[in-house]
Design goal:
The chain is mainly beta. It has two domains: about 80 residues, Elongation Factor Tu (Ef-tu), domain 3 (Beta Barrel), CATH 2.40.30.20; about 80 residues, Elongation Factor Tu (Ef-tu), domain 3 (Beta Barrel), CATH 2.40.30. The chain contains four helices and twelve strands. The strands form two sheets. A six-stranded antiparallel beta barrel has the order 1-2-5-4-3-6. The protein has a six-stranded antiparallel barrel with strand order 7-8-11-10-9-12. Strand 9 and strand 10 form a beta hairpin. The two termini are about 30 Å apart.
């Protein structure tokens, strides 16, 4: 479980092909590894991955073919990635509850400068729009954001200077594909209501 508050930006230094996926080696940037162990989960651009090796300040994680099929950006050597260690039950939840299970791929359709901030318009899969609410939470490449506006199959978020400085969202360009995770409470509510009506 994560919160969508990015702790560091890392870089994929090496991509190794495996029979059913890849192994990525990441330089974790400023991520504090003092309490991290093999087997721990790290959200990497919003994808929950387990550490396979931790050697010389580098972390390695395996990414299955299934995960590669439903996410973007983990297979690219040199790609900067948002990193977050899994939360402890005693931690503050400054973002929102995030599983690290990507629900779909969105596409950046517009970026507008608004003073020091950037307004980002993202086109989401139609199947996810029922879970996205104005003033609700959405995770974009692992970053917890608040939805400002919804129009058909697009939603808008505001990126404040701090978010831009601390994440890879500053690197986004029009037509970039992004990992999306909708608010888990919306998914559970839909499941509860659908089973209650049967």
């Amino acid at each position: 479980m994560f919160t969508g508050i990015i702790e560091a930006v890392g870089e994929i230094k090496k991509v190794i092909s495996l029979e059913n996926g890849i192994r990525i080696e990441i330089s974790p940037g400023r991520l504090d590894l003092s309490d991290v162990h093999v087997g721990d989960s790290i959200a990497t651009n919003g994808v929950c991955l387990n550490i396979i090796t931790l050697v010389g300040g580098m972390i390695s994680m395996d990414v299955s073919r299934e995960t590669l099929n439903c996410t973007r950006g983990l297979e690219i050597q040199g790609q900067r990635v948002n990193l977050e260690k899994s939360m402890r039950l005693s931690d503050r939840i400054n973002g929102h509850l995030v599983n690290g299970h990507v629900d779909g791929i969105g596409k950046v359709v517009k970026i507008e400068l608004k003073g020091e901030s950037r307004l980002l318009v993202i086109k989401a899969p139609v199947s996810l729009m029922k879970y996205i609410a104005k003033k609700g939470s959405i995770t974009v490449n692992g970053v917890s954001l608040t939805v400002n506006l919804i129009v058909k199959d697009e939603f808008r978020v505001n990126l404040i200077p701090h978010t831009l400085a601390m994440t890879t969202l500053q690197d986004l360009k029009t037509d970039t594909k992004v990992n999306l995770e909708v608010d888990m409470l919306a998914r559970y509510l839909e499941q509860l209501l659908s089973t209650a009506s049967k």
